[in-house]
């Protein structure tokens, strides 16, 4: 198994090249099942979650081709030959549930193992099922599998009211509504940029969607057809991670990304004393010009502060002068990075869904364990500021979501090594 060895204390600077957004690419690839013609995608990151998705697609009959050099993928599913997403694949990636709507749309039946993924809370799929039921599907649970069926005639347009703006359930609903007969309205839809990316694909495949980027989406379904190659948006979570990595080392890092994708993150970083600017080559640059101040944040659905950046911010705030507070409202049990950060010397205290951070602390290298995808990123950020050497184990979590992480960090000036460990 590989581990990362980081020697802290190097100042990071420069422009990081961003990969396509994992969280946009996954639903887009599943949407490739919605037509029997070939769909092409560009800017697909080479990540283990992408490979899991491609295997799931192959498992139901799709021919997939991933050109890892060009970062392109084609999905071609002339006929669905199986309607099952097996446990062994699904358990590693919660987003596998996104195969449910396209399978039902294509063949009126789907059997999907209940998902696993990061160990961050219960993460049920009730909202996915509720949305599909509103459009005519029925479900029962059999031996750990969700078995869904749909009467002949396919999904029928309807109204969907989400009690909470779930990202994945909004994507499930969008795919089903786009393939449905008639018009549907999704109320309280999630508004993440990755959802707009999926909407854009569905529109270019023939669906009509009004209200993109808002919490009310009106969708008129169509027989979905192939379209020109779709380019995945850049990864805003990856961008935020590198910007913070630069900040904790007293450096300055830039990334080519639309500022609107990062509004809440950049405003928190400004409050923490970072200098945020837009460069002439359309990059966001974040620089540490004289220390960091404490902040209080609460995670929230987009455009609020992303839960996927909470762990990284916590690592950064260990270097702010004073008392910071972080409240996590999206997932329970998303503080698994806390004990590991404490091992590096952070002063943190968990109070329910709050963490108090006292800074600045003198971080020191240690052996730490990655526990989930973003938790691993927080350990890296802390390690970059720690005195001495940190070894991060179980980095397969990182491989789910960060493409070429050690190479990108190296290009910014970090001393980082990816090594094999027995
Ligand atoms: C997506 C992202 C993930 C991010 C999260 C929140 C992908 C592949 N993953 O995950 O990186 O952390 O959004 O921004 O895009 N919930 C239910 N029932 C459901 C669905 C969700 O109760 O049917 C709950 C979850 O348990 C969680 C909350 O809603 O507490 C948010 O989940 P959701 O927005 O659905 O996140 P994901 O789509 O799983």
**Percent range of helical residues:** 25-40%
Number of helices: 14
N- and C-termini, Cα separation? 6 Å
Largest sheet: 4 strands, mixed
CATH-defined topology of the largest domain: UDP-n-acetylglucosamine1-carboxyvinyl-transferase, Chain
Show the helix and strand layout.
Blueprint: E1 2-7, E2 13-16, H1 22-31, E3 39-42, H2 48-59, E4 63-67, E5 72-76, E6 84-85, H3 87-90, H4 100-107, E7 109-113, H5 126-134, E8 137-142, E9 145-150, E10 159-161, H6 167-179, E11 183-187, H7 193-204, E12 208-210, E13 216-220, E14 230-231, H8 236-248, E15 252-255, H9 263-271, E16 275-278, E17 284-287, E18 296-298, H10 310-317, E19 322-327, H11 337-343, E20 347-351, E21 354-359, E22 367-369, H12 373-385, E23 389-393, H13 396-399, H14 405-411, E24 415-420
Parallel strand pairs: 2-15, 3-14, 6-7, 10-11, 18-19, 22-23
Antiparallel strand pairs: 1-23, 1-24, 3-5, 4-5, 7-9, 8-9, 11-13, 12-13, 15-17, 16-17, 19-21, 20-21
What does this structure look like?
The structure is a single chain. With 422 residues, the chain is an alpha/beta fold. The chain has 2 domains: 2-18 and 234-420, Alpha-beta prism (UDP-n-acetylglucosamine1-carboxyvinyl-transferase, Chain); 22-231, Enolpyruvate transferase domain (UDP-n-acetylglucosamine1-carboxyvinyl-transferase, Chain). Helix content is 31%, strand content 25%. Helix 10 (310-317) runs parallel beside helix 12 (373-385). The longest helix has 13 residues, at 167-179. The protein starts with a strand and ends with a strand. The structure holds uridine-diphosphate-N-acetylglucosamine. Uridine-diphosphate-N-acetylglucosamine binds at residues 23, 26, 94-95, 121-128, 164, 166-169, 190, 194, 306-308, 330-331. Uridine-diphosphate-N-acetylglucosamine (UD1) binds at residues 23, 26, 94-95, 121-128, 164, 166-169, 190, 194, 306-308, 330-331.
